[in-house]
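Hi there, hope your week has been kind to you so far. Please have a think about how the structure follows from the sequence. I've dropped the whole record in just underneath, so have a look:

_____
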Amino acid sequence: MRKNIIFIILIIFLITSGIAIAEEIPIYKGLIHGDELFKNISYLDIENSPYKNEITRLSALGIIQGRNEGVFDPERNSTRDETLFFLVRLLNQEEAAQKAGEAVVINPDDKENKQYLPTQYWAEGYIQVAKDLNIITPEETDLYLDFSDAVKNDIDREIQSKIRRYERSGKYTEQELQNIEDQIRRGLEWNEAYNKEVTREEFATWLSRAMKLEPIYAKEQQTIRNLKDFQTIKTVFLPYIESIYQKGIMNGFDDLTFRPSDKIKREQVAKVIDKVKDEILKEQGYDISYGYVQDIEKNNIYVDHLDGEKEIFLIKDEAGIIVRWDVRNNNRPEDKRDFIVLRNDELGLSNNVNINDFYKYYISPDKEIVYAETPNEPQIVTGKIFKLYEIEDEDIKTPYIQIVTDNGNKVDYLVSSFAHIRVNDKYGNYEDLINDLDVRIKHFGGIAEEILASVEIENPDYILPFSRVYIGKLLSFNDSFFEIITDEGLKTFDISMETNLLKNDRNISYKDFRDGDLLRVEFSEINKEIPDRIIVLDQTKDMDYFYKGTLDRVDINSKSILVSDIEPYDYLGYGSKILMDDYKLRRDAEYQTINKNIDLDYLKNYQGKEIYFWTDTYYGKEMIQSVVIKEGFERSYLDDVKQISFGKKTINLSDVQLSYGDSSLFVKEGRIIDPRVIKEGDEIYVLSHSKDYISLASVESMPIPNYSVFRGKLSDISTYKIKMLNDLYGLLKLKNNSWEKVKGFIEYPMSNETIIWDKRNYNSEKIEVKKFLEEKYLKTISGTYINSSAYIVVYKDEIIGMQLVDESTVTAQFGIGSIKEIDSATGAVKLEKIQNWNAFSKSFISQNTTIDLKLDQSILAKDGRVISLDELNTGDKIYFSRKDNNVYYAMVY
């Protein structure tokens, strides 16, 4: 309360004394009629628009506006006149446009006979200003007014229909009738020329000119030539669309087309203009800043002979400078002042602003606070810790950190309970931070999400907080001891029943630990041998997909990249290529060459180059976590690790030595692991580039490269093609060692090399492809194969093997083994080093035994074709699916 009184006294003193302190505390007043602006842009029909915020933002800044009261009509196609209207307003030329419109008014005093409305004259003014600004050329306007004979006749008929009632009245002179006819014609011609839906090529060209981008010609005109339909773009528009395309302001479609003649919706126009508005507004003198609300004061004071309420917001910007936003509410509308606020995607006025809110805000050239919004991206600040303190409110202590920034300003940040804190790249807590540490803080809305601190260990005033805390990756664990790999090397610790095991603040058992887990091992005493607590820090990342592809475009504005020739990694190799796609980038994504980290802007230099990238799921969306530039040729290896050197960062296989570094990705069971978790004897599959530099090393053993296995009912046989539908168990596809249902049907071609076995009714017969096809085309009396259950093995979208089976037959056991013996006479094969898939634990379990399996009548695939038993060798490794000892299909790898 004392603070509030002092604040009010200070404000009154400053107002009444006339002391000029504006240079020290900039004061920005709200907009006159800000509350009316809020009503005008509170559209009722944009809630479901994906560009709701863009529409709101641009409307608040006076760049676009709705069609009528409460309606924006986001999905309606934008017309030529309203598109040019938006662009003229974007360039702050609305006043000039309206004055130009007023200058062409016909008989302004003839109110009774007015046919052409003021808004239509203004619209003409906007077109005139658009021509003056070279957004639209005179040639284009002439083209729009060059009507066909059919259109001219329609206009003439419409004029005659409208003018007839004026003629019949007998009230008008010839001059008045001519004036009315001129206005009617003017409106109809305008409607025909400019009230037409704008095309994508027109909008892209006009926006390029509005932004004063240099048109791109000749050999530099490369980006747009990658589009399949670039030849359909009007020649005069090509250089401008290229300039827009290269900057990533507008994009093509997934099918590599631009679709120049397609219409563009009003919401899409807003989306594109929103990308470029900040740059243009800054050129007009707008100040666009970030800051958080330090204090809010409401005062009922007597100022300028007006009773009212004044609200003052004190904002500390990114540089630590205090500014004021002033809002006034009183009985005289012309003295009311307020501004638009978009807080957490909700539209409102200044009364929605709270203390500690963080805003991106717009100050007009007239020094008015126009608009503020909570941003979606975190901010970065660096400096030194000045002090750490806690604020207690209702028994809850909130930690804060105050730093002195690099430019000498003191800034305070609330430390999130979820903040990642590291000192000298070691994980720590809030208590591990001390004064004078160098810090880099990532914060959102003044709330620190990440604090990275560093300190010279030689500092005599610093007590190392990690003297009895060890951080490391778990190598092995049982109920009596465990091993972790730390920066200091391999550490082994005993554990006891008293050791507290935690993950996400929950007690767990040692059985819940997994190889590669990042652990924090804590001791309560300096010389204690058994840790008191072991915490899983859960810093490992999941990899959803690993890809190789060609980097076609980098879009810095939307934080995305466009990739073509995409090949997804699918266990020991790549799967089928997928279409070009636009991938969003995580805000903490990394971009790397073999030798160094690069930023997103520098990544543009590698457009046209092959890249590796991996993705994970972020709030339900697949987003890129890392991009690595592919260098040189690619090789792949599958072998046991013979030797590994963490110092030299090399891994030796049987015939090759591989190197790795920061850009190398190591994966086990779908998780990113530290390479130090890998042990000699581990079986890994490696993709390398350059001179055997590891891009991906997978420790997983699920080798089904490039094959797809389906099970269902044969519903049709045509010329070298079959169709499969649901049978008793549905239509199934093998995925991750289990059956997954597929909707609809599948259809694949076959060839004369396709191997077909009939294993129905406990028989086993090899069927010639010709005989199999005869059922459909030679019209056999009784159907033999249609409606039978079957397994098919597909390689590169072609069936290489098929097993006809009884409807009740389902292979339930999946496994991996190494061939020890082959009996060609009986078709039996003895396997060792068996690993059976455990569906419960979702992992392969090693079995210290051997098994005999029948392989001579199975679909046995190797290198994309079906082979015979005679082509197998001892030592070959196979992935198999079986029921009892009968193998239905197996892959040699």
